Amino acid sequence: MRRSNLACAQYAAIAAAAVVLAVASILLSGCQGKESRKRDKVIIGLSIATDTFIIERWNKDIKIFTGAARDRGADVIVQLSAGGTKEQIAQIDFLLARGIDVLVVIPHDSEMLSGIVKKARDAKVPVIAYDRLVMGTPIDAYVSFDNKEVGRLMAKSLREAVPRGKYLVVNGSKRDNNSYIVRDGLWEVLGPAIARKEISIVDEIWLDEWSSDEALMRIGAVFDRTTDIDAISCANDQIAGAAVQLLSEYRLAGKVAVVGQDADISACQKIVEGTQLMTVYKPLALLAERAADIAVSVALRNTPMPDLTVDNGSGTPIPYYVERPYAVTRENIDELVIRDGFHSAEDVYRNAVDKEKKR
Ligand code: GAL
After folding, report:
1. 20 to 30 A Cα–Cα from 33, which one of 93, 110, 273, 283?
2. Is the pLDDT of residue 288 over 50?
3. What are phi and psi of 54, to 5 degrees?
4. Are 136 and 111 in contact (CB under 8 A)?
């Protein structure tokens, strides 16, 4: 018995161990199941900065991105932060606590997110910068348009319309890395003409925020000094709208060449009415769908081959996925903006005089 007892006792112990093991593996597989269930269903955290939801384009970005992510079997938790970078950091902390698999962020301030981004990546949550680059810390991907080309397109349109004359330049928010890249593209084209004294810069403004109110105030202060201006480069259509509003108060709307960015509906209407010369159209669907693709791939640990790499001051080359922007004028607005379904002809030509509608 003893032996047999021993044998029995051993069998009992082994059986008990087997039961414990079985239970453990079910639990584990259960967990693993939950893990793989979580993995199979990627959860994307989308953090969007302050000024964005009063700017027309971002509503489109959010809508297309979340739709595209869902089409790829992912869930998206969207966080809009009102009030600046502090709130955006709190929002990202909240997303991390929700167990997201990947973070997609549109930074309010490109320089101020390196701490929370490092925290996310230390927690094995990859980070993707959408449209605006996060500076100063390694990230997993940057998906945006060619923002230098945006600046070149703006400058080329102004140079064509005003080969000689006085220019006012209104750059975007100082907190947004895009503002500097767009400005570099502008200067690549304007610089040589300035050197040849074909054009002169009456003033160059840097905004604190992407705010049309701030633009009204700052451009208004320039107009108080002088309205002897032939061309105005505005970093986005909201700023262009402020410039055209002030020009109309001086009865100069349509007489001064104004360019912007984003192909907002009001800008497209001004272009067919003749009070704005050009805007930069960025096919947002291409960007948002590509970003959704990349977010899901990166979450599943297979980062797609980038188009380029970009330096964000972290010492690590960042995979950069680039989409092309287009110059939109009265001549090509139908084939670019309307044919793409970005705006309807009805909306674009809403205020246009009859002769325009018959085009
Ligand atoms: C920039 C973006 C522009 C414009 C601007 C204001 O980062 O590239 O398209 O919308 O923000 O929100």
Report:
1. 93
2. yes
3. -100, 0
4. yes
**Would you say 178 and 132 are in contact if contact means Cβ atoms under 8 Å apart?**
yes
Amino acid, single-letter form, for residue 78: V
Mean pLDDT of 314-336: 98
Whether 134 contacts 110, CB under 8 Å: yes
Residue 224 pLDDT greater than 80, yes or no: yes
Residue 10 has pLDDT above 90, yes or no: no
Does residue 55's CB lie within 6 angstroms of at least one atom of ligand 1? Answer: yes
Residue 316 in this model has a pLDDT that exceeds 60: yes
Among 32-46, 78-92, 115-129, 335-349, the range scoring the smallest mean pLDDT is 32-46
Confidence check: pLDDT of 17 > 60: no
CA–CA distance, 218 with 259 (Å, rounded to integer): 17
Distance CA 151, CA 173 (A): 15
Nearest to 232 by CA among 180, 175, 190: 190
CB 210 less than 6 A from any atom of ligand 1? yes
Tell me the CA–centroid distance for residue 236 and ligand 1, in Å. 7
Q: 279 CB under 6 A from ligand 1? A: no
Nearest residue to 351 (alpha-carbon basis) of 278, 281, 274: 274
Q: Quick check: CB of 266 below 6 Å from ligand 1? A: no
Long-range interactions of 327-330: CB distance < 8 A, separation 24+? 327/153, 327/154, 327/156, 327/157, 327/278, 327/280, 327/281, 328/263, 328/268, 328/271, 328/278, 328/279, 328/280, 328/281, 329/157, 329/271, 329/277, 329/278, 330/271, 330/272, 330/274
State the closest ligand 1 atom to the C-alpha of 177, by its place in the atom list counted from 1: 7
Mean pLDDT of 286-293: 98
Q: Is the CB of 108 under 6 A from ligand 1?
A: no
Say which residues have a Cβ less than 8 Å from residue 244's Cβ, sequence separation at least 6: 253, 258, 270, 275, 276
Place of tokens 């003033």: 203
Task: Kindly report the average pLDDT of the chain as a whole number.
Answer: 90
Q: What is the dihedral of CA 211, 352, 329, 190, to 10 degrees?
A: -50
